[in-house]
Design goal:
With 247 residues, this protein is mostly helical. Helix content is 62%, strand content 7%. The protein has helices at 6-9, 61-74, 83-106, 109-129, 133-140, 143-160, 164-184, 195-211, 217-226, 230-246; strands spanning 21-25, 31-37, 40-44.
């Protein structure tokens, strides 16, 4: 059996600056995700960790680290990630980043959301258990970027389900998360010119125009609360609950 990947690369030229992804059937019948890179292909599993591994028997390395932290707490010890654990965490962050990009490109939005949520949860863990602030910030700096991807995926999923109002609200939630990130790190001066925020707002406006939507129920609720119109706010909350229950 040849060990080169010429056949896999045939007809799939690398295009710089563009995420190229595809789903293919492996020799054993399972489906795998492939991402074209400059010198070849990254191949990832669809479920669990992208590399298909179960670190120390756990579904992901985050699950393993959570177990280690819980054991340390149970024995009255303080858990801190060691260098090897930091290295392995970096690997998992990168794997989920690559797969998230592919899901977005293929418009498999539920999978993109799940992978974004995993990364955000891992960032929370690292913030709490990092060996030092430098390592924590090395990952925390990308939190806004992950929220940017998640908001796009959540909006795309809502549009697929013919719920443009939900899509606008999902984009707004992403905007608020990114703004909160900048404010937390005293970077408010970046908010006005941030390209991610600008893109999410442009998406909102496009959806409003395409579907002729003014203020969503959640936006109306925020306005009612700001105006201290609590009776109207209560009615809007009830309507939002009814819609969410139907969904």
């Amino acid at each position: 059996m040849p060990k080169d990947i010429d056949a896999a690369l045939a007809g799939w030229e690398f295009r710089p600056g563009i995420v190229q992804a595809r789903l293919v059937d492996a020799a054993d019948g399972r489906q795998v995700l492939q991402m074209r890179v400059d010198l070849g292909i990254l191949q990832m599993e669809l479920e669990g960790r992208p590399d298909g591994q179960r670190p120390h028997g756990f579904p992901t390395y985050l699950d393993y680290l959570r177990h280690q932290a819980a054991q340390a707490r149970a024995s009255g010890q303080r858990f801190r990630m060691n260098p090897e654990q930091c290295h392995e965490a970096d690997r998992e962050f990168l794997q989920y980043y690559h797969r998230r990009l592919c899901w977005l490109t293929l418009r498999l939005y539920e999978r993109a959301i799940a992978d974004a949520d995993h990364t955000l949860a891992f960032m929370d863990f690292v913030n709490h258990y990092a060996p030092d602030e430098e390592y924590a910030l090395a990952h925390e700096q990308y939190r806004g970027f992950v929220h940017f991807h998640r908001a796009q995926a959540a909006a795309g999923l809502a549009l697929e389900r013919n719920d443009p109002e939900r899509a606008i609200d999902e984009l707004q939630e992403g905007i608020e998360h990114i703004c909160a990130f900048y404010e937390k790190h005293a970077l408010q001066d970046r908010i006005e010119e941030d390209p991610m925020l600008r893109h999410l707002k442009e998406m909102q406006e496009q959806i409003r125009q395409m579907h002729q939507i003014g203020a969503t129920l959640k936006e109306q609720l925020a306005e009612a609360v700001a105006q201290e119109d609590y009776e109207r706010a209560a009615r809007l909350r009830d309507e939002i609950r009814r819609r969410e229950y139907r969904d």
